[in-house]
């Protein structure tokens, strides 16, 4: 009977996790990445939904381990995320997200899941993981300033008449290429590491030469990728400047979709990580399941959201869209590398606001910004309070 109860608990937790993955895929991670490209008429809505689902799945499988393990193991000190605790956290978080979807309230998934996991963990006797909280809060607080500031500077550069767009856009493409060369992928693991970058992978086949502790081989590969990216975009810009910008937006959308999968899948499946030993399930299989949930969400729910968001992005124009997408990609990759659960909506909204201020504040509502920030904080506090209270009550009633 006890074994049956444990199995039933695990099934409920898995179903809640799948629902969360679907909601994330249908929401911010599925709808945001290609909305600028759709708004710029670079790709159709249905094709965007199809591609973002595939890229989200790839990102979840190839880059999702860090955030997934952080959500499952690092938010509370102690082995306290039991099957019952994980189930309570996932059901409450999924319920709040569903409430936000159907009632129109802006419930932030990252804040909700983080609050729920910390709440049940502390209620179950765990200790606060202060060092991890410091990392998380630092990135959450810095994101609006870093993302908005970078978007503002990029938009100002693209609006500067003394810098031709045929020069500025390829330079930005080179920066994006350098970032791509140094982000980690599970398939490129080597030297005992769980993942590896393109620069590191190629550099291993080159003579090992260091200068002040800096591997020159990896630097050379990074520069080569950056130059190739800049040259490819420059060629497109010479042929047709507007079409070149749209194609660059498509590439950025793909990179953001991939990054969203890597950073958001952990919010759905992270609470299940401590339970893997009980069901003898390897982490890659769990990542694949979470990625599949994102994919289904993107294919079934994202097109409607993409169409709605594209109308907002079409008013931004390609330059402001490019300015918003580049820092969004960079910050998402920083979160993936550090294993920090981060709100994709926070990243995107901050970048859009920053690019909007570069255009004189056009389309930026301060009232809406304040309400959004309050919604983020409210999501965290509500999820923490509910999960702590509900788990405490269930523990008293049923001895969980």
UniProtKB/TrEMBL annotation:
The keyword Metal-binding does not apply. Pfam families: PHO4. Its main location: membrane. It is found in: Membrane. InterPro entries: Phos_transporter (IPR001204). Keywords: Membrane, Phosphate transport, Transmembrane, Transmembrane helix, Transport. The chain crosses the membrane at residues 6-26, 38-61, 81-103, 110-130, 136-155, 167-193, 213-235, 247-269, 281-302, 322-341, 347-364, 373-398. It is a multi-pass membrane protein. The keyword Transferase does not apply. Belongs to the inorganic phosphate transporter (PiT) (TC 2.A.20) family. Potential transporter for phosphate. This is Phosphate transporter. It comes from Halogeometricum luteum. The lineage of its organism: Archaea, Methanobacteriati, Methanobacteriota, Stenosarchaea group, Halobacteria.
């Amino acid at each position: 009977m006890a074994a049956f109860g444990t199995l039933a608990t695990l099934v409920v937790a898995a179903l809640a996790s799948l629902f969360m993955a679907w909601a994330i895929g249908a929401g911010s991670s599925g709808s945001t990445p290609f909305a600028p490209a759709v708004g710029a008429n670079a790709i159709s809505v249905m094709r965007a939904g199809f591609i973002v689902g595939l890229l989200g799945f790839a990102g979840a499988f190839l880059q999702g381990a860090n955030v997934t393990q952080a959500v499952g193991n690092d938010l509370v000190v102690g082995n306290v995320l039991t099957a019952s605790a994980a189930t309570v956290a996932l059901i409450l978080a999924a319920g709040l997200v569903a409430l936000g979807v159907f009632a129109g309230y802006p419930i932030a998934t990252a804040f909700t899941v983080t609050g729920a996991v910390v709440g049940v963990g502390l209620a179950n006797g765990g200790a606060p993981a202060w060092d991890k909280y410091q990392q998380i809060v630092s990135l959450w607080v810095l994101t609006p300033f870093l993302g908005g500031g970078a978007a503002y500077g990029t938009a100002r550069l693209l609006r500067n008449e003394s810098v031709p767009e045929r020069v500025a856009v390829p330079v930005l493409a080179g920066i994006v290429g350098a970032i791509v060369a140094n982000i980690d992928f599970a398939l490129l693991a080597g030297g005992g590491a769980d993942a590896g970058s393109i620069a590191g992978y190629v550099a291993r086949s080159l003579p090992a030469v260091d200068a002040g502790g800096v591997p020159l081989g990896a630097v050379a590969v990074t520069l080569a990728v950056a130059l190739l990216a800049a040259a490819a975009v420059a060629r497109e810009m010479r042929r047709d400047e507007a079409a070149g910008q749209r194609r660059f937006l498509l590439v950025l959308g793909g990179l953001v979709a991939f990054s969203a999968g890597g950073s958001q899948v952990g919010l759905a499946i992270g609470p299940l990580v401590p339970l893997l030993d009980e069901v003898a399930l390897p982490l890659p299989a769990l990542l694949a399941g979470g990625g599949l949930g994102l994919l289904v969400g993107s294919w079934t729910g994202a097109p409607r959201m993409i169409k709605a968001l594209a109308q907002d992005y079409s008013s931004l124009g390609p330059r402001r869209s490019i300015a918003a997408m580049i820092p969004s990609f960079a910050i998402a990759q920083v979160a993936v590398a550090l294993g920090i659960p981060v709100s994709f909506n926070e990243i995107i909204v901050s970048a859009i606001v920053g690019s909007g201020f570069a255009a004189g504040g056009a389309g930026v509502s301060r009232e809406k910004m304040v309400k959004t920030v309050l919604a983020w904080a409210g999501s965290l506090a509500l999820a923490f309070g509910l999960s702590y209270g509900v788990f405490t009550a269930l523990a008293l009633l049923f001895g969980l």
